[in-house]
Amino acid sequence: MTPGELRRLYFIIRTFLSYGLDELIPKMRITLPLRLWRRLVFWIPNRHKDKQLGERLRLALQELGPVWIKFGQMLSTRRDLFPPQIADQLALLQDRVAPFDGHQAKRLIEKAMGDQVVETWFDEFDVTPLASASIAQVHTARLKKTGKEVIIKVIRPDIRPVIKADMKLIYRLARWVPHLLPDGRRLRPVEVVREYEKTLLDELNLLREAANGIQLRRNFENSPMLYVPEIYSDYCSQEMLVMERIYGMSVSDVPSLEKNGTNMQLLAERGVQVFFTQVFRDSFFHADMHPGNIFVSYESPEDPQYIGIDFGIVGSLNKEDKRYLAENFIAFFNRDYRKVAELHVDSGWVPADTNVEEFEFAIRTVCEPIFEKPLSEISFGHVLLNLFNTARRFNMEVQPQLVLLQKTLLYVEGVGRQLYPQLDLWKTAKPFLESWLKDQVGLPALIRAFKENAPFWVEKMPQLPELVYDSLRQGKQLQQSVDKIARDNQSHRARQGQSRYLLGIGATLILSGTLLLINKPEWEWLPAGLMAGGIVAWLTGWRRTT
């Protein structure tokens, strides 16, 4: 490791220990060396004993920077895995990260606008930030041209070197994993880290986020389920984004939602519908759906509508992955474990030589106890964890293209269960998936494919005679080449046969000559003649092998 990486690693360890996070280490025999090592590091005491563990964890992640804050944001949605005192504190990472100076933000905005003062384009610019996140900070203003209220998002100064330094260290740690864990190579840690790095670096380009927002707004135009604010692309740059200001309640503010008379069951169900619509209908999904990025409109509480912001991280799946995922979900909840096992093999997620019967039995062993509960109580998070542990025996590799999807699904489940604890995720998702699969393989899919390809076929129709002629000519040339190769092979085999025959004759003549020479025959010239003939036969046979 380089000196810089060692310093950063020491800083991370010192931060965790100074906040007393060694309390999270379970008291088990396997963790005894780690706990003994903690006692040896006596010069880094817990400096925050007056604070609760959840607050200390939040402050430590906040101090470590964006990479760690994003990790905390993901954990905050898993209230079924963490006690409320920890989950509540981690939720504060969504929009309460310490802001940087507002006047510095104003200077960065002016620089992004070509060194023009903010007042050239905006009125009522507020130097006090509306929200501050791990990557960027948000200020409010009003467009001078139209008078519309907007928010201006600006990237934190000097954030890129911090992210690159942390990711470099994480890469090094990821390369150690295959050597430290028995099945570390199967986890594909480097590929996963590379995918995570890509999503973080994408967030640093606000032009990309603007394009993502425009796409999502178009996908859900006039939708009662989700509203995506308007992006003012004329004012956007790589370092700055200008977007319509929205007013709504945070999806994590359950008391306010209930006070407003929100239909919590419908709201929770619509969250699931929005997720599956993005994944399977659009192949373009918001992959950072933590509570800090999701709001609920004050209007029509009986027909609630989500409002989505922060489009820096999006994901997509190809047709094959979508098909396999949908079929896996349906087979899993229909308890068709044989189908689940076969789909994993067909998709290449487990090796082709996997024993399907054994894999099916392992899945059944894990899943049957889960299905003893009502579907409304089944956690996708626990199911995924159990299946992941089961798959170790069958060399299932981590699929980097599915990491964002899995994380987003956990977000959706966490938020949905927080809004409506009785949420039956499967009851909401199954009709959608069955309808989507039917649409992919039925007559509508055939008609749609014909419509999509018809312009191409019409364009190529005049070229059809020439293409047929070229195909026939190439087929004839190919046949001639095959015939020539066959003749050459036949000739080669004949020469090989003659060669073996001559080599055998040569060996016989040389051996006979040698035996006669030993026995001193009456005709002394005979052994020499036989041996000479054998050598000639050998040389002739050897030449025919080349």
TrEMBL record:
GO biological process: regulation of ubiquinone biosynthetic process; ubiquinone biosynthetic process
GO MF annotation terms: ATP binding; protein kinase activity
Keyword tags: ATP-binding, Cell inner membrane, Cell membrane, Kinase, Membrane, Nucleotide-binding, Transferase, Transmembrane, Transmembrane helix, Ubiquinone, Ubiquinone biosynthesis
Pfam families noted in UniProt: ABC1
InterPro entries: ABC1_dom (IPR004147), Kinase-like_dom_sf (IPR011009), UbiB (IPR010232), UbiB_bact (IPR045308), UbiB_kinase (IPR050154)
Compartments where found: Cell membrane
Residues involved in ATP binding: L130, A131, S132, A133, S134, I135, A136, Q137, V138, K153
Transmembrane segments: 501-519, 525-542
A GO CC term assigned to this protein in UniProt: plasma membrane
Residues at the catalytic site: D288
Major localisation: membrane
Pathway(s) where this gene product acts: Cofactor biosynthesis; ubiquinone biosynthesis [regulation]
Domain of life the protein comes from: Bacteria
EC id: 2.7.-.-
Keyword Repeat: no
Bilayer topology: Multi-pass membrane protein
Keyword presence, Nuclease: no
Record domain ABC1 atypical kinase-like: where: 93-344
Enzyme class: transferase
HAMAP family: UbiB
Task of the protein: Is probably a protein kinase regulator of UbiI activity which is involved in aerobic coenzyme Q (ubiquinone) biosynthesis.
Entry's family note: Belongs to the ABC1 family. UbiB subfamily.
NCBIfam families: PRK04750.1 (NF003404), UbiB (TIGR01982)
UniProt-recorded name of the protein: Probable protein kinase UbiB
